[in-house]
Amino acid sequence: MSPRIVNKQAKKEAIIQKATEVISAKGIYSFKMSDVADAADVGKGTLYEYFKDKEELVTACYVYFLDSFIDIADSVDLKNSARANLRSYISVLFKHFSKNIDSVHIAFDFWSQALQSSDNRQYVKLMTKAYNDFVAVLIRIIKDGIKKGEFRAIDVEKYAAAIVGMLDGILFQGVMGINDITDAKWPRVISNMILNGLSKTG
Amino acid sequence: MSPRIVNKQAKKEAIIQKATEVISAKGIYSFKMSDVADAADVGKGTLYEYFKDKEELVTACYVYFLDSFIDIADSVDLKNSARANLRSYISVLFKHFSKNIDSVHIAFDFWSQALQSSDNRQYVKLMTKAYNDFVAVLIRIIKDGIKKGEFRAIDVEKYAAAIVGMLDGILFQGVMGINDITDAKWPRVISNMILNGLSKTG
Amino acid sequence: MSPRIVNKQAKKEAIIQKATEVISAKGIYSFKMSDVADAADVGKGTLYEYFKDKEELVTACYVYFLDSFIDIADSVDLKNSARANLRSYISVLFKHFSKNIDSVHIAFDFWSQALQSSDNRQYVKLMTKAYNDFVAVLIRIIKDGIKKGEFRAIDVEKYAAAIVGMLDGILFQGVMGINDITDAKWPRVISNMILNGLSKTG
Amino acid sequence: MSPRIVNKQAKKEAIIQKATEVISAKGIYSFKMSDVADAADVGKGTLYEYFKDKEELVTACYVYFLDSFIDIADSVDLKNSARANLRSYISVLFKHFSKNIDSVHIAFDFWSQALQSSDNRQYVKLMTKAYNDFVAVLIRIIKDGIKKGEFRAIDVEKYAAAIVGMLDGILFQGVMGINDITDAKWPRVISNMILNGLSKTG
DNA sequence: TATGAATGAGCCTTCATTCAT
DNA sequence: AATGAATGAAGGCTCATTCAT
């Protein structure tokens, strides 16, 4: 009665993972559906069983990528000193990105695509949300530090944005091969820099 | 007696400027040669009189864009205190980018394209050079500050990279519409943050 | 003991009926096998248990459609006056088509397909036979009328063809929405026109 | 200054003519753009210089076909007796169609396509207009005949529609190979039939 | 027997590039 | 030197058909 039994969800994820590799390697604009089909070892037509069109596949890859960050934001708590919390957060981020440098490729691609107006508002929305999640965690940590008397009362929003921007920028340099983000010294250097900027006593 | 005296170099630059507008608006991957021809008010075939192919046109636009930064790097001197020099540099950068937010679009596009391996090594090289120019200026300022006893002796290279990354990241947020980089408070906030991180006395 | 007794012939007919609906709605060139599978509430693969390929399914639908006309031709007899017989035949046809305007759609579709040479000789044959059946009935009635002295001795074949053509044309106009073939006046108008053309006394 | 000088309108017409042949031969649903490109001896891309997409090419062919009828309708006047005018009109039509039997193919294809709902309303409109033009001419002739006392006062609209339907139907039979519309006897037979139906004296 | 997931041939359409004028 | 008509390679997507279950 029933033909080939397939876990469609699992297969969809498998395709997404292969597609992410392909997009990371060839670029969001240059990769071909046939590249993905080959990488995932399925026929071209099969891709369209799981994704309406190329764009839907790309979006799925991006969402899948964003989902991988949820855990990081959730892993932060405010039990310890604000200084320790911030060091911990920075450290976790560097570890995560060091391990997933490939998927960062695709993120920059998405953001680049998001820059082109009108059509890609959805990308912007998704990306903005991810960005805000990062910023929100930092804001929580910094405000907690101010409340605890560890940090000076600075412009929290701008500081948080600047910190995320800095991490983003360093990550970008890593992707570009300008510096080596797997260098274990990074978290300490960056944390120090931020904490010095925040310290009451300097 | 010559039937039509045309300054080929001037016309080439005119095309580059129009092409830059087109690329900024449509994106480095989506713009068409015909878009450029229309914008520059020349025939499609004419473009090929000035540029071997699409890639050469794109590269020319990127180089033209990079050249616009040379002045900024050159404008920095070390006559004043390191703190003042750094504030001045940050301030100049924000002013420049606020005025040329459109051309930043294209930079991110180039960098995104540069991420795709093999073929685009040239872009990476060009971009790396531009990045290094920025970093070099900061390194000069910071080292000068250390020598003058204004700054602590920190990991200069990483600090400089982090600062450029931060500026890059904030700029990116501006392009994405996440924050407003024309806000006049940015230079002071960022300068303070950096200087606090560098200060001996805090 | 047999696990599932299925009347294959009945199921085949059920599929044909659903397929006819689908073809009528979507058009002979635009309908998809999956449309039929959905409409008939069977799997796509199942269709191929009953029909070798799409073409065989289409042909089966057409034959099924043609069969519905056999009764009409058979219902005609020559007991009454030729004038009455012709009026009766015209009237029956209009009633039949008024009730089955939907299936006329499919007929025109078949004919349209039949127009494409080479491959579809079979359609032409089937259609020609149906056409000839209609014409034959008219020829019988007219010849009967001539024999009975009611009609003039005209070119029977051409007259019959013209009459069928006229009915066909009016039907087509009805399908196209140009006129309303359910208007009860049609049979009388058409019969009068034909009979005036055939009358000895005018 | 100016490249290849081409009469774009003439070339467009040439493509339309070749496309009409192709569509007539292969069918409106089965022909491929590459068929047309081959027939017109141009590259596939060239077709898209003249027509936005396949549908626009098809529509252009149809409109071109319809335009060929305008002259016929215009050629009718009411100077002579209504009987003579009608004979003349019928005769002109048969001559025209005999010469252009190929383009009739495409007309039936259009009409068939027009039958499929929603999307093809434009075809229906174009076709309805053409149909009405034919009917209008007949109505003029018949009304003129009634006024002149040559014809009986019958339901003019239905008569006219029936006559056009008849011509349409016979034409269809011709296209289908069921009868030979180039047979010179047709105009006389049909005219007689119609005139007998219209005559006061029979 | 029934199914629907998988497939890939095939077709429309785009666009960088060429070249006759 | 300048042009834009012409081109065809390339790639996204559809859908009839197959076949493992």
Notes on the structure:
- The structure is a homotetramer of 202-residue chains.
- Chain A has nine helices and no strands.
- The first copy, chain A, has a single domain (8-198), classed as Orthogonal Bundle (Tetracycline Repressor, domain 2).
- The model of chain A has no long low-confidence stretch (mean pLDDT 85).
- Helices cover 74% and strands 0% of the residues of chain A.
- With 202 residues, chain A is an all-alpha fold.
- Chain A has helices at residues 8-26, 33-40, 44-50, 54-74, 82-99, 101-115, 121-147, 156-176, 186-198.
- At the A-B interface, helix 6, helix 7, helix 8 and helix 9 of A face helix 6, helix 7, helix 8 and helix 9 of B.
- The first copy, chain A, binds a DNA duplex (21 and 21 nucleotides) through helix 3.
List the helices and strands and how they pair.
The structure is a homotetramer of 202-residue chains.
Chain A: H1 8-26, H2 33-40, H3 44-50, H4 54-74, H5 82-99, H6 101-115, H7 121-147, H8 156-176, H9 186-198
The structure holds a DNA duplex (21 and 21 nucleotides).
Structural descriptors:
homotetramer; about 200 residues; mainly alpha; Tetracycline Repressor, domain 2; 9 helices; about 0% strand; DNA-binding
